[in-house]
Design brief:
Number of strands: 17
Oligomer: single chain
Number of domains: 2
Distance between the termini: 8 Å
Strand content: over 45%
Structural class: mainly beta
Largest sheet: 12 strands, antiparallel, barrel
Helix content: under 10%
């Protein structure tokens, strides 16, 4: 059973423990990625179907379909949404059991930015301005429509530490105003920021700051889970057994691997840091790699040892 306090406690613990207070004899987890250069651009992310992203509040979303121009997601509530791989845009289509939302976006050029509507490829200082038109339909209620005005910018490279580990990222910020026609007279309503990690092809930190009385929000990446679709049951069993064994017995920095007959599928797990929760339970950050034929993918995360001695990634069911 998912416990909201379980995740909240772990999040507070990691913030308090940074940069590192470990119970093992090994050092802190290290950043394995290459630091982004301010002069280099970063292409639009590419999402792999079946990949699941778990966040610090226990929510999660899985990629169900992906093309270079559109990604379809399903979240822990069963909601389905699709849109651009550019996550600074809200989904073009979103639907739940009783509601549907559609959006379209248009340029809102000005003399400083022009008609730029996308920050990708990312480069420090790049700006974009857009107007978002939204139509919301809820069963048994009148249709609602509204528009939003956004001004976005690539702030630049930034190193951040979240529950899943420490990452080199690109920081992106978008500001929403209440007047889409005249920004000089508009009031700032919201600021959204993302820290995009090229190693993960996704953001590891998303924050919302409201100027309307709503509570601010902070969402950290807790884990990225590999897909089990297409994997034979024997490979799934070996991967899970090795995951449990690595987190239970391996010291931070030590790697243990697994493979199938013929080594067509293989992987390895490396714990990178170990913490102890106030209630006595252990949590560990780790790096997992899975090799699918000639392609190798890397997944970062944090797991917590439950009362039964099993390591699990806490998420909503």
């Amino acid at each position: 059973m998912y416990n909201h306090n379980f995740v909240a406690t772990a999040l507070k613990l990691l913030i308090l423990l940074l940069p590192c207070v470990l119970i093992t004899l090994t050092g802190c987890g290290t950043v394995s990625q290459v630091a982004p250069s301010e002069s280099n651009s970063q292409p639009l992310p590419i999402y792999k179907p079946g990949t699941t992203f778990v966040y610090s509040d226990g929510s999660w979303e899985v990629v169900t379909d992906s093309t270079p121009h559109q990604v379809t997601w399903r979240d822990h509530r069963g909601n389905v949404y699709e849109g651009s791989p550019d996550f600074t845009y809200s989904p073009e289509n979103w639907r739940s059991a009783d509601r549907k939302v559609s959006r379209r976006f248009t340029s809102r050029g000005n003399f400083m930015v022009g008609e730029v509507t996308s920050l990708w490829p990312l480069k420090k200082g790049k700006k974009a301005v857009i107007t978002e038109f939204v139509i919301s339909r809820k069963n048994g209620a009148p249709e609602k429509s509204y528009r939003r005005s956004w001004t976005c910018m690539v702030v630049g490279p930034e190193q951040v530490t979240v529950m899943a580990g420490e990452f080199y990222t690109w920081k992106i910020a978008c500001r929403r105003y209440n007047n889409y026609q005249n920004l000089s007279k508009a009031k700032l309503r919201e600021i959204r920021t993302w820290n995009y990690a090229p190693e993960i092809n996704h953001y590891v930190l998303a924050q919302k700051q409201f100027f309307t009385g709503k509570a601010d929000r902070r969402l950290e990446l807790l884990a990225v889970l590999p897909t089990a679709d297409g994997l034979p049951s024997s490979a799934q069993v070996k991967m899970q057994e090795t995951f449990q064994k690595a987190l239970e017995f391996q010291k931070s920095g030590d790697t243990i691997g697994w493979s199938t007959r013929g080594a067509s599928l293989s992987g390895k797990i490396t714990p990178t840091a170990t913490f102890r929760l106030p209630d006595g339970r252990f949590s560990r950050q780790y790096v997992q790699t899975v090799k699918f034929g000639d392609e190798e993918r890397t997944y970062y995360g944090l797991a917590i040892r439950n009362s039964e001695g099993k390591w699990e990634i806490p998420r909503r069911q």
